[in-house]
Design goal:
The complex is a heterodimer of chains A (about 110) and B (about 110).
Chain A: E1 5-7, E2 10-13, E3 19-24, E4 31-37, E5 44-50, E6 53-56, E7 65-68, E8 75-79, E9 88-95, E10 102-103, E11 107-111
Parallel strand pairs in A: 2-11
Antiparallel strand pairs in A: 1-3, 3-8, 4-5, 4-9, 5-6, 7-8, 9-10, 9-11
Chain B: E1 3-5, E2 10-14, E3 19-21, E4 24-26, E5 31-38, E6 45-50, E7 56-58, E8 64-68, E9 73-78, E10 87-95, E11 102-104, E12 108-113
Parallel strand pairs in B: 2-12
Antiparallel strand pairs in B: 1-4, 3-9, 5-6, 5-10, 7-8, 8-9, 10-11, 10-12
Classes of the chains: A mainly beta (about 110), B mainly beta (about 110).
Chain lengths: ~110, ~110
């Protein structure tokens, strides 16, 4: 079966541009997570959805970061006015009921 | 504060050597514990997990980990590594009563020499 997919796989943005990163979770998975992974570090939690409800956004680093999952399936992470410190790999994970998380390949964002 | 600490950042072993990667955590409450692996060019995959019960858990590819509650540790072991085990290994902790949000350590890069 299909795993978690993310697009684009690579994104280069000029500082100040807005970007949108897409996540397609495993079909039927209720929970969806976004993580940010800086070079040489482990993933850091950004936000969590249960179906379409965003239940935890405590990890979003600033109000420039926004995530949505309007129909409880596909999710989009949007970053406005990108800064160089936003350069990282953005990982999406889904799980059936919040137990084992299945990760996508990530989107590598480079902000110039 | 909730945190996970992996003591070894970069480990180099020869094939057939034994492996132990350290992981300690700081977390209030009952925890779920995980080891994830990321092979070169691939995405994060679950190696093994501990939720409750027997503190010695076995995962895929001959890996095992032991949960020692008194030491807040969940070390990963493998008796005999192979070249194909070359990868980055992440320990992670999540609360058993929360949403499933995971806190990861910074990872250990394992290089196995043939």
């Amino acid at each position: 079966g299909a795993g978690v997919s993310q697009s684009p796989r690579y994104k280069v943005a000029k500082r100040g541009q807005d970007v949108a990163l897409r996540c397609d979770p495993i079909s039927g998975h209720v929970s969806l997570f976004w993580y940010q992974q800086a070079l040489g570090q482990g993933p850091e939690f950004l936000t969590y959805f249960q179906n379409e409800a965003q239940l935890d956004k405590s990890g979003l680093p600033s109000d420039r970061f926004f995530a949505e999952r309007p129909e409880g399936s596909v999710s989009t992470l949007k970053i406005q006015r990108t800064q160089q410190e936003d350069s990282a790999v953005y990982l999406c994970a889904s799980s059936l009921m919040g137990d084992e998380q299945f990760f996508g390949p990530g989107t590598r964002l480079t902000v110039l | 504060a909730q945190s996970v600490s992996q003591h070894n950042h970069h480990v180099i072993l020869s094939e057939a050597a034994s492996l132990e990667l350290g992981c300690n955590y700081s977390y209030g409450g009952t925890v779920n514990l995980f080891w994830y692996v990321q092979y070169p060019g691939q995405h994060l995959q679950l190696l093994l997990k501990y939720f409750s019960g027997d503190p010695l858990v076995k995962g895929i590819k001959g890996f095992e980990a032991e949960f020692i509650k008194s030491k807040f540790s969940f070390n990963l072991r493998k008796p005999s590594v192979q070249w194909s085990d070359t990868a980055e290994y992440f320990c992670a902790v999540g609360g058993s009563s929360n949403t499933g949000k995971l806190i990861f350590g910074q990872g250990t890069t394992l290089q196995v020499k043939p």
